[in-house]
Write a structure and sequence with these properties.
- This protein is of the alpha/beta class.
- It has two domains: 317 residues, Urocanase fold (3-Layer(aba) Sandwich), CATH 3.40.1770; 205 residues, Rossmann fold (3-Layer(aba) Sandwich), CATH 3.40.50.
- 42% of the residues lie in helices and 15% in strands.
- The chain is built from 18 helices and 17 strands.
- Strand 8, helix 7 and strand 9 form a beta-alpha-beta unit.
- Its EC number is 4.2.1.49.
């Protein structure tokens, strides 16, 4: 990690309107990189790990310093190339070209295995970029919160008459992104019991407001959940423990949850905790990684076995984690039916895909000034721009009441094809008129409608069988470069592990200029448009209808 290059002062994103770089675009990239690393935001600051077990913002502290220096020196017509967390070149391009191009964890397909990646990682040649960790657009737990909220709202509509009131959801994981689940459940008026093996992570989520309360033990946790259920209130309870241990205990007690899911880091066995006392487990990880991975896989099999048994007893089961089912399958557990379908579905095919067909996904923005009032002003503009959208109004009200700003103030909002372009111009106009105090960085999760191929998660069960076709995220990255995004990234593995997905990210900065307005129109049409193209091509009639209604040009679709 080259700790001798670690800054003496803790890294946090700069605030205000003083530039350290030669353009706001480069300054935005620098501030978002700093924001990813900020210990209030990141998972393991010393190792530059942002979230997802091992997702880094830079390869090591030496390369971090080089990236920072390069961004500060970058001319308005230059582009920095970043290869798995290391700045490797600066090109003379154009003022309207991306300032940064990033590729993380990408391997030739036949070599794209966790084992080979780990070897390269140990040699200092690669890093795991996860999704938004290595593309510098992570906004802490809020980043996945609305998508999680939308998922649980869809579950409420399909199974519980429109509300989770009076239901209990059991889940696992309270890492960087995982705090979204308990808050999303309570925002839908349900009760959530979440199991996490590292006690400090439970305490942190209580401090941040993503979790309401920490239980002393399992009996206490169930007492708190049953009480909240009886009172019909939204409430979340964290329990320190291992899901592989706790879920079988729930079955032994005859406890029946209404929903069971997870958000654990199972994609890399080094990040999933085996059963046992946590200090002993962590010592094993340091002293004998192979034995640790063996025990982690055994724990995953127990975890998924318990989920399947809960499903048999009437609980709604849905996968929301990082390849938990796929790892259980590697461990020898049957997780598919005779047709090859998972015995319990992922959240995208079960609840979210219709939104993807409309070009909707986790669109997000952050205030580079660091002023929370900028986000609140944009919230008002959002409601004024889409006054007929009652779901959006409900989300903003709940987000303002319950979602803390961690690091640079930010907001996430699911907007579709046509809506993103419209609102990007609204944001740019607010910057131009000085109604917000600085430029606004606009991006999204890589988990978006047209930017990912991930057969065990986002593209599971595609209608035409194209689950593993990775051309789409490659085209997404190329299209965003052509349209004028400010930085573009292309990653392997994020969310579900090396070799299991390809995905791309884009960011564009609203600086308030007419030139940037033109680029915003193109990028914020191009990017969600890839979701329309991808799903229309796969045979989804909703996507084809949206293309016709909103003027997305697709050869062969009239």
């Amino acid at each position: 990690m080259f700790y001798e290059f670690k800054p003496t002062e803790t890294v946090r994103a700069a605030h205000g309107t003083t530039l350290r770089c030669k353009t706001w675009e480069a300054e935005a990239a620098l501030r978002m990189l700093e924001n990813n690393i900020d210990p209030a935001v990141s998972l393991v600051y010393d190792e530059l790990i942002v979230y997802g077990g091992a997702g880094r913002a830079a390869r090591n502290w030496k390369e971090y310093q080089t990236i920072v220096k390069t961004l500060k020196e970058l001319e308005p017509d230059e582009t920095m190339l970043v290869q798995s967390g290391k700045a490797v070149g600066v090109l003379k391009t154009w003022p309207h070209a991306p300032r940064v191009l990033i590729a993380n964890s990408n391997l030739v397909p036949a070599w794209s295995t966790q084992e080979y990646f780990d070897q390269l990682d140990r040699m200092g040649l690669m890093m795991y970029g996860q999704m938004t960790a290595g593309s510098w657009i992570y906004i802490a737990t809020q980043g996945i919160l609305q998508g999680t909220y939308e998922t649980f709202a869809a579950m409420a509509d399909q199974h519980f008459g429109g509300s989770l009131r009076g239901t209990i959801t059991v889940t696992a994981g309270l890492g960087g992104m995982s705090g979204a689940q308990p808050l999303a459940v309570t925002m839908n008026d349900g009760v959530c019991l979440v199991v996490e093996p590292i006690d400090e992570r439970v305490k942190q989520k209580v401090r941040e407001g993503y979790l309401d309360e920490q239980a002393r033990d399992l009996a206490h946790a169930l007492e708190l959940c049953e009480q909240a259920k009886a009172e019909g209130k939204g409430w979340s309870v964290g329990l320190t423990g291992n899901a592989a241990t706790v879920l079988p205990q729930l079955l032994e007690r005859g406890f029946r949850a209404d929903i069971v899911t997870d958000q654990t880091s199972a994609h890399d066995l080094m990040d999933y905790m085996p059963e046992g006392e946590i200090d002993t487990v962590l010592a094993l990880r340091a002293s004998n990684p192979e034995e640790f991975k063996k025990q982690a896989l055994q724990a995953i099999v127990k975890h998924v076995s318990a989920i399947l048994e809960m499903q048999k007893r009437g609980t709604i089961a849905v996968d929301y984690g990082n390849n938990l089912r796929g790892q259980a399958e590697k461990g020898g557990l049957p997780v598919r039916d005779e047709h090859g379908h998972f015995l319990y579905p992922g959240f995208v095919p079960a609840y979210i895909r219709p939104l993807f067909c409309e070009g909707k996904g986790p669109f997000r923005w952050a205030a580079l000034s660091g002023d929370p009032q900028d986000i609140l002003r944009i919230d008002r503009a959002l409601l004024e721009t889409f006054p007929e959208n009652n779901l959006l109004a409900r989300w903003i009200a709940k987000a303002q009441a319950k979602v803390p700003f961690i690091g640079l103030p930010a907001r996430v909002c699911w907007l579709g094809y046509g809506e993103r372009e419209k609102f990007g111009l609204v944001i740019n106009d607010l910057v131009a008129r000085g109604e917000v105090s600085g430029p606004i960085v606009i991006g999204r999760d890589h988990l978006d409608c047209g930017s990912v191929a991930s057969p065990n998660r986002e593209t599971e069960g595609m209608k035409d069988g194209s689950d593993a076709v990775a051309d789409w995220p490659l085209l997404n990255a190329l299209a965003n470069c052509a349209s004028g995004a400010d930085w573009v990234s292309l990653h392997n593995g994020g969310g579900v592990g090396i070799g299991n997905s390809t995905h791309s990210g884009m960011v564009i900065v609203a600086t308030g200029t007419p030139e940037k307005a033109e680029r915003l129109k193109r990028v914020l049409t191009t990017d969600p448009g890839m979701g329309i193209f991808r799903h229309a091509d796969a045979g989804y009639e909703l996507a084809q209808d949206v293309a016709r209604e909103r003027g997305a040009k697709i050869p062969g679709v009239k």
